[in-house]
TrEMBL record:
<dbReference type="InterPro" id="IPR000257">
    <property type="entry name" value="Uroporphyrinogen_deCOase"/>
</dbReference>
<protein>
    <recommendedName>
        <fullName>Uroporphyrinogen decarboxylase (URO-D) domain-containing protein</fullName>
    </recommendedName>
</protein>
<dbReference type="InterPro" id="IPR038071">
    <property type="entry name" value="UROD/MetE-like_sf"/>
</dbReference>
<feature type="domain" description="Uroporphyrinogen decarboxylase (URO-D)">
    <location>
        <begin position="155"/>
        <end position="344"/>
    </location>
</feature>
<dbReference type="Pfam" id="PF01208">
    <property type="entry name" value="URO-D"/>
</dbReference>
<dbReference type="GO" id="GO:0004853">
    <property type="term" value="F:uroporphyrinogen decarboxylase activity"/>
</dbReference>
<dbReference type="GO" id="GO:0006779">
    <property type="term" value="P:porphyrin-containing compound biosynthetic process"/>
</dbReference>
<dbReference type="InterPro" id="IPR052024">
    <property type="entry name" value="Methanogen_methyltrans"/>
</dbReference>
Length: 349
């Protein structure tokens, strides 16, 4: 069974051979850790890094909004800044703080960008065609923060929340602008016939969501449904990511068309995730980066992965797991986590 087939069977509850596991190393890690130590760990875990090739000198690739002390202006005229190469920055200049700027505000061209970065669709098509020739899973979608977070980038968080509470009519105009643009990106992706379309956007805080469930249903959910509908109609898997506590929004996300949901484990609670999704909706579990992996013992790291696999997985499938490594996690815990992910990937085999 190829990794692509295994992934598709997992999402569709069709008895995959293993739990798909992804270990993502953030680019900033290469100047926070000894690069050789990280490469040693990657080399020792071929299941997680099947295409790994050791390099004499690792040259990480930083996105345009991940460059220290180099502000980046995105296609929506939002200005990003970061203090560490490789760590995605935050928007420090919001171009629509004043509604007076809306009438003449320039909307980006979805034929030239995805809203966050420039896009060469011709080059992207060539890359997708190569992925298909190689039998790999093709994943398309919108950039992280495409709707609700983009509103914050443009207006500022507090302004957006007050706009919703005040039922500001110009907010609807702005949302429509964003939706039309994002639909242009979605349609261009769908022309490439991907296996899965992802709609990543953080909605949660440490406790509770960043907007009320009522405001989510009024302003954001209809946009999600509009953007996801063409993917569902084409037969693509609809994938949604959100960091934070999204328990009060989860039912609306699934109702809106999400088939695979990527959410954080301990913030939402393993038992709650099991009750809400296990056996019905594919769980793409974002493994803890706040407590156990950075501050626990290797034994606790192993126990966490085993507990999650036992409570959320089944032989039929429905569980994917991903870990994002950022600076600050001890090397012994990184090793324990890689070991556990490789071991428990075959728990139901």
């Amino acid at each position: 069974m190829t990794p692509r087939e295994n992934f598709l069977r997992t999402v569709r509850f069709e008895r995959p051979e293993s739990i798909p596991m992804t270990f993502h190393i953030n680019a900033a890690c290469w100047h926070h850790y000894d690069p050789n130590a990280l490469q040693d760990l990657m080399e020792a875990h071929p299941f997680l890094f099947p295409d790994f090739q050791r390099q004499e000198r690792v040259e990480p690739v930083y996105e345009l909004n991940q460059l220290k002390d180099k502000p980046y202006t995105d296609p929506w005229q939002c200005v990003w800044e970061t203090t560490d190469d490789g760590i995605t920055g935050s928007v420090h200049q919001h171009p629509l703080l004043n509604w007076e700027s809306l009438a003449a505000f320039p909307v980006p061209d979805p034929g030239a960008s995805d809203g966050t970065y420039p896009v060469d669709w011709s080059a992207l098509q060539s890359r997708v065609e190569q992925q298909k020739r190689d039998g790999k899973l093709v994943c398309g979608g919108l950039p992280h923060g495409h709707t609700f977070l983009r509103l914050q980038d443009l207006r500022g968080y507090e302004n957006v929340i007050f706009d919703m509470i005040d039922e500001e009519p110009r907010l609807n105009t702005l949302i429509e602008m964003l939706a039309d643009f994002n639909l242009g990106v979605v349609n261009r992706w769908l022309e490439l016939k991907p296996d899965m379309m992802s709609f990543p956007e953080d909605l949660g805080m440490q406790v509770g969501p960043m907007l009320s469930p009522d405001n989510f249903r009024t302003y954001i959910k209809p946009v999600y449904e509009r953007l996801m509908a063409p993917a569902r109609e084409q037969g693509c898997i609809v994938h949604m990511h959100s960091d934070g506590d999204i328990r009060t929004l989860a039912a609306d996300l699934i109702d809106g068309g999400v088939e695979a949901i990527n959410l954080q484990d301990l913030v939402n609670g393993i038992d709650w995730i099991a009750d809400a999704f296990a056996g019905r909706t594919c769980i793409d579990l974002d493994i803890d980066r706040q407590t156990i992996t950075p501050y626990g013992t290797p034994a606790q790291v192993d126990a966490l992965i085993r507990e999650e696999v036992e409570k959320l997985g089944t032989k039929k499938g429905g569980l994917i797991m991903i870990y994002g490594l950022y600076p600050g996690v001890p090397l012994e815990n990184i090793s324990a986590l890689m070991n556990a992910m490789e071991t428990y990937a075959f728990y139901y085999a």
